[in-house]
Amino acid sequence: MVKVCPSCGRTEREVPFIGFFCRDCYLRDHQLVEVPKLRLKRCPLCGRAYFSGRWEDFSLDRLRDWLVDHIKVREMQGVQIGVSFPEVDEDLIRYRAIVRGTVEGTPVEIPLEGEIPVEKVLCPRCGRATGGYFQAIIQVRGADVEEHAEEIARLVEREGGEYAFVSRVEFTKDGIDLYIGSKKVADKVARKIERRYGIKAIRSHRLITEIQGKRVYRLTVSLRFPPKD
User: Fold this and answer.
1) What is the spatial distance between Cα 78 and Cα 100, in angstroms, rounded to a whole number?
2) What's the half-sphere exposure (Cβ side, CA atoms, 13 Å) at 165?
3) Hey, which of 53, 112, 187, 229 would disulfide with 97, CB 3.0 to 4.6 Å?
4) Residue 130 confidence (pLDDT)
5) Is the pLDDT at 185 greater than 90, yes or no?
């Protein structure tokens, strides 16, 4: 007996069926795919975005994975999702997606399109950096202080991490002071400079506060560069 769709009257000879209904009527009456309302937080300073509970470097590949993770699919087997972004700007992202799979052995293809508003939010790293936060000071002294200060700042940034930043630069009568977000980063960079130039850093620690019985110290590293030969 040939199946006849009770909704539109077409037969299985005209269109694939899912159960007792033709595929079109079945898809009309069953919401197999759902995308919740999404909003993406992105830092206006460093460009990172808040994906799945943490701040990460922004890329279309990462954005695609994040969107796919939020697409909810029901009843379908062998699901494949293709995503494209026809528009990506600082305030809004437009996407198109196609969800492919099978329902009871019948191939199904569901197109989607939507918008993701972009919310400008300072990430914790940039918030601390612009707020002047620092755990250490690297004092650049001796010859060619500006050149070496720029070199040290680059090394700090390359370390990566939430505290690898220079929050402030101060020019003093003796040289340049770089305020660094992390004691660990400052010490690591200082050791690289020591090896590179064959100089010895002078380190000192200053008690600045006590939190729950634990003393918190600030590190100061002084680097004196000799004149070039």
Assistant:
1) 8
2) 19
3) 112
4) 93
5) yes
* CA atoms of 46 and 14, how far apart (whole Å): 55
Sequence-ordered list of residues with C-beta below 8 angstroms from that of 18, at least 6 positions apart, any chain: 26, 27, 103, 104, 106, 108
Q: Report the predicted TM-score, pTM, of the whole model to 2 decimal places.
A: 0.77
Tell whether the torsion through CA atoms of 30, 37, 82 and 54 is positive or negative.
negative
pLDDT digits (tens, 9 = 90+) for 75-106: 999 999 999 999 999 999 999 999 999 999 99
The pair of three-digit structure tokens given for residue 117, joined into one six-digit string: 């508003």
CB 101 within 8 A of CB 11: no
